[in-house]
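Exercise: predict the fold of this chain.
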Amino acid sequence: MTKKDFLYKIPDIIDHKTCGYGELEIVVDSKEQKGVCYRHRDKTASCGTYGTTWLEVYEKLDKHLISEGYIKA
């Protein structure tokens, strides 16, 4: 999975249950590591995850977003 594929499949904004709206932020994009979170207006972050590939990050984040009810399976 490419970074472009990842960004296409994952929502760029969520309405977090306690933190409010959060925008997807890529925090690491190196050859060895990828990482994302949702950044909120108060500069806090939620739903963050890391992996060695965009596919790994996608699988972790997608599973979490489904389990928390932010997206449907």
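Check your answer against the key: The radius of gyration is 12 Å.
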